[in-house]
Predict the structure.
Amino acid sequence: MPSPSRYVLTGATSGIGAAVADALARRHHALVLVGRSREVLDARGAALRQLGAPAVSLHEADLSSVAQTLALAGDLASEPVDGVYLGAGILRLERQVTAEDLELNYAVNHLHKFILADALGPHLAPRGGRIVVGAPVGAVRGRLDDVHGTGSWSLFQGISTSQYANDVLASGLPGRHPGLEVVGWNPGSTRGTRVTRGLPWWARTLFWLVNLRGRACAEVGEQGADLMTGPAGRPLTWVSKRDTVSLARADELSADVDVLWDLDAAIIDRIRR
Ligand SMILES: NC(=O)c1ccc[n+]([C@@H]2O[C@H](COP(=O)([O-])OP(=O)(O)OC[C@H]3O[C@@H](n4cnc5c(N)ncnc54)[C@H](OP(=O)(O)O)[C@@H]3O)[C@@H](O)[C@H]2O)c1
C-alpha cells in the first residue's frame, strides 16, 4: 500500500474514534472528520491541528440519516482519500425509529458504514487503500430477516443485528472492491468512552463493571492508528482486541453478503426516491 496520508474518520468526536484520530494526528496525517455538531467538530479540529495534523477538514452529518450520509459520501468521494475508519456507533436497548423509518441502531451502527464503504471503496481500491470497520468479529449473530425489529424485539436485538451486519459488510467488501484492504476490528472493552450514555442505569452499571477490566482509550486509539497505517495486509483481516484472528463463522458470513447488499440497497433506494 502506498503511504496513506489522508484519512476519513466517523465517530472521532468521542471515545475510541477520537483516540484513533488523536494518534493519527500525532503521526502527522491529514484528517477528515465527520460529526453531527459544528461546535464539537470545530473544537476537535483545533485540538487535532495542535496535536500535529497538517490539515483537518470537517463535515457535518447526522449518520442516523441515510439522506445525510449519502450527501456526505458524495462530498467525500470528490477528494482524494487514502484510508477510512468507520467507528461511529451507539448502544440502544429500546426500539427507536428514525424519521426515515429505520431502526436507530441499524442506521447509525451499520448503514452509515455500508454507504461510506461502498461509495469510497471504488476510490480506495485502485490505490490499495484501507477501510477499518468497527465490527464484533464473530461475537454475535444478528437477524438480517428483521433488521428494523418490526416483528418482535428482544433486549440486545438492535445492537446484535446492526453489529452482525458489520461483520457481513467487512466480509463482502474485498469481493465488491478488489484491491481494497479491509480490517474488521473489535477493540474490546474500552475505558473512558461515552458509549453507554443512551442506556438505562442498570445497563450502564453493567457495562461500567465489565469495562473496569478494559483497555484505556488512548492505548486502543494507538492500535486503531496502527491498523489504519500498518504495512500492506491481506484483502480481509479480522482483529479482536489486540490479536489478529481467523473467523470460525466465515462461511456463514459469506452466505449473508448478497442478502445484506440487497437489503441495504433496497433501504437506500427507498429513501433516495
Ligand atoms: N467502549 C467500548 O468498550 C466498546 C467496545 C467494543 C466496541 N465498541 C463500539 O465502538 C463504537 C464507538 O464506541 P465508543 O465507546 O467510542 O462510544 P462514544 O464515546 O459514545 O463514541 C461514539 C461516536 O459515534 C458518534 N455518533 C453517534 N451517533 C452519531 C450520529 N447519529 N451521527 C454522527 N455521529 C454519531 C458520536 O458522536 P457524538 O460525539 O456527536 O455523540 C461519537 O463520535 C460503538 O459502535 C461501540 O459499540 C465500544
In short: The longest helix spans residues 250-272. The mean pLDDT is 94. The helical segments are 15-26, 38-51, 66-77, 104-124, 157-176, 201-211, 217-229, 250-272.
